[in-house]
Structures are given as C-alpha cells and as structure tokens.
C-alpha cells in the first residue's frame, strides 16, 4: 500500500461529502430502487446481466433487519415486473448475522423463498473472516432445506477457501473473488501473486466439482486464466459467468462480453452510499488509489 493511498484513505472523513458523492457516483447506481432499475435496464440493453445490492451492513437493530428485508423484497418485485435479467446480492450482517444466527437464517429464508417464487436467485456475499463460518453455515442450511436458488461467495485470499470448496454441497453455486477486507496473515494470503495462484487453483477445483461459478474479477491475468480453463474443459456458457463491479474496468467488460461470455454487473444502491464509501475506503486503502486515478482521469477529461 503506497503512502499516497494511505494518506488519501486517512483524510477521507474530512473530504467534503459532495466530493465523496462525485467519486462514488460511478460505482453506485443512486439512492433509490428507481435509480437501480434504470441502471439495470441500461446494462440489460448492452447484453449484460446485473445483481442488485442494497447498501448496508453490520446491522445492530432488529428493526433495520426488517427494513432490509422490505427493501430487497421490493427489488425482487421490480426485477419481476420489469422482466429484467438480474438477481440480488445480500450481506448476512445486514440481515443480523452478528446479532442472532437464527434471526438471520429466518430473514434470508424469507427472501430466498420470495426469490424462488419469482423465478429469481439470491447470492450471499462474503464479508470479513469473522463471518466466514456462519455465512457458509447459512448457505448449507438453506441448501439442506431444498433451496437451489441461492449461492455463496468464496475469497481467494483466504487460506481456508480450498477446504471450504471441498465441504460445499453437491451442485453448489459459487462466486469466486479475491476478497476485499483487510485480514491478518494467519487467515489470508497477503501476496498478490499467491492470491492469484490460489484464485486459479480454486477455480479449477470448482470446475472439477461441476459447480456453477461466478468469476468475479477485473484482473486481466485472471480473466485470461479463466478463459484458458473454460476452453480447455470445453465448458458450456451455462456453466459459469463473469462478474464485475459497476463502474470498474468497462473496457475489459466489453472484451469479455465480446468474446461471447455471459457477464453480470454488481449494482449497489441506496441511501447508505456515504457510510458505505467511507467504510470501504478505510477498510482497504488500496481502493483510494482507484479514487485518485479516477479524480485524475476526471481532471484530464475536463482539460481535454
Ligand atoms: C461482482 C463482484 C462481487 C464481489 N463480491 C465480493 C464479496 O462478496 N466479498 C468480498 O470480499 N469481495 C467481493 N468482491 C471484491 C473482490 O474481492 C475484489 O476486492 C475486487 O473485485 C478487486 O479485485 P480484482 O479481482 O478485480 O483484482 P485487483 O487486482 O484488485 O484489480 C484488478 C484491476 O481492476 C481494477 N479495479 C479493481 N477494483 C476496482 C475498484 N473498486 N475501482 C476501480 N478499479 C478497480 C483496477 O484497475 C485493478 O488494477 C467482489 C467483486 C466483484 C467484481
């Protein structure tokens, strides 16, 4: 992590809100479900799928858990009404994972049931390492109850992920990403090269087991490796999808789509954009570098 990145991340709380807003606009669809629906319609128009994320996490009050359930229920309805090619992604701590596991399971089950009835799918995002075991339990419980319209996420930086792949139920549906949280060396690989090697190793293991994989990365090396594995195994297009974040690596997104792969864009929205942006930036100052480049790129564009 460079000095500049650390400096930017540390000074974020004093950066005026409108500036954080301007910078994060590219990554966040807006405050409302209508904003998100417009973004999804535009993405679908470009032949891209979407997944909706209502911003919010680490909920400490039950009333907020229920509010999250209502917001996601509205999102599932909007997807069905608009016949969009989109699903939803949820964070277990937004559904009370750190308050009470059974409460979380109950509320997530409510959503997964609603999604199933609407022909839709729920991806359970993976948060920091304190949540990993409970999140995988949540997923296993729902699968054991017979739900097939639910998937989970594994992070390539986690040392335990290979064992986690091997313990997944048959027919699992997994998003594979590098991992965004700051984790200690005891639980996570720190070296980018090792994380990348583990990403490829996990991807092979997931494909070997016949699992559906969401390959979530903007790293060109990994996109290349994934394409190589897909080609070598002659995998049908229905066995996997690529996934990228809204506003990130759009040229690579076009290249991947142009090569005929299906690609889903992660679309965060909601009034909690400010807290979310600050938290993300403070959690991982590396992202501050992206902000810096986007500010510089914006400046260059204005000068051009
Ligand atoms: C669809 C999706 C879902 C995700 N879900 C989770 C999750 O549930 N849990 C979790 O821990 N992590 C999640 N992540 C985040 C992921 O773990 C990584 O932190 C993030 O995607 C960056 O890793 P990368 O593979 O793109 O590689 P990197 O090496 O970090 O990035 C490769 C290149 O992509 C560009 N880039 C990457 N991220 C950004 C950004 N934010 N802004 C601008 N440019 C960027 C940069 O040009 C960079 O050089 C998700 C990512 C995606 C794409």
Task: Name some characteristics of this structure.
globular, 304 residues, disordered C terminus, single chain, 8-stranded parallel β-barrel, 14% strand, 8 strands, binds flavin-adenine dinucleotide, alpha/beta, 51% helix
Explain how this protein is built:
With 304 residues, the chain is an alpha/beta fold. 51% of the residues lie in helices and 14% in strands. It contains twelve helices and eight strands. α1 crosses α12, α4 runs parallel beside α5 and α5 crosses α6. The structure holds flavin-adenine dinucleotide.
How would you concisely characterize the structure shown here?
The protein has helices at 3-11, 17-25, 33-45, 62-82, 101-117, 132-144, 161-166, 192-208, 220-232, 250-258, 273-283, 286-303; strands at 49-54, 86-90, 122-124, 150-155, 173-177, 212-216, 240-245, 263-269. It has 304 residues and is an alpha/beta fold.
Strand and helix map with partners:
Layout: H1 3-11, H2 17-25, H3 33-45, E1 49-54, H4 62-82, E2 86-90, H5 101-117, E3 122-124, H6 132-144, E4 150-155, H7 161-166, E5 173-177, H8 192-208, E6 212-216, H9 220-232, E7 240-245, H10 250-258, E8 263-269, H11 273-283, H12 286-303
Parallel strand pairs: 1-2, 1-8, 2-3, 3-4, 4-5, 5-6, 6-7, 7-8
The protein binds flavin-adenine dinucleotide.
């Amino acid at each position: 992590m460079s000095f500049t990145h650390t400096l930017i991340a540390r000074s974020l709380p004093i950066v005026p809100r409108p500036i954080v807003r301007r910078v994060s606009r590219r990554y966040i669809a807006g405050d409302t479900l209508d904003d998100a629906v417009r973004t999804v319609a535009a993405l679908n128009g470009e032949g891209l799928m979407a997944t909706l994320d209502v911003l919010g996490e680490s909920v400490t009050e039950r009333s907020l858990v229920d509010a999250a359930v209502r917001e996601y229920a509205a999102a599932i309805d909007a997807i069905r009404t608009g016949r969009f090619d989109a699903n939803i992604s949820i964070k277990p701590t937004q559904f009370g994972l750190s308050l009470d596991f059974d409460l979380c399971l109950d509320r997530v089950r409510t959503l997964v049931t609603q999604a199933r009835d609407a022909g839709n799918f729920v991806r359970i995002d993976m948060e920091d390492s304190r949540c990993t075991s409970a999140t995988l339990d949540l997923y296993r419980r729902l699968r054991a109850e017979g739900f097939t319209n639910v998937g989970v996420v594994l992070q390539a930086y986690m040392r335990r992920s290979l064992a986690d792949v091997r313990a997944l139920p048959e027919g699992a549906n997994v998003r594979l990403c590098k991992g965004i949280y700051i984790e200690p060396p005891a639980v996570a690989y720190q070296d980018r090269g090792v994380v990348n090697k583990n990403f490829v190793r996990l991807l092979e293991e997931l494909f070997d087991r016949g699992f559906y994989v969401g390959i979530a990365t903007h790293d060109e090396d990994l996109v290349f490796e994934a394409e190589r594995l897909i080609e070598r195994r002659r995998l049908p297009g229905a066995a996997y999808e690529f996934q990228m974040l809204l506003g990130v690596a759009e040229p690579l997104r076009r290249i991947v789509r142009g090569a005929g792969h299906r690609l889903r864009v992660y679309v965060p929205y909601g009034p909690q954009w400010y807290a979310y942006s600050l938290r993300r930036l403070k959690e991982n100052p590396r992202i501050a570098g992206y902000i810096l480049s986007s500010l510089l790129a914006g400046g260059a564009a204005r000068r051009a």
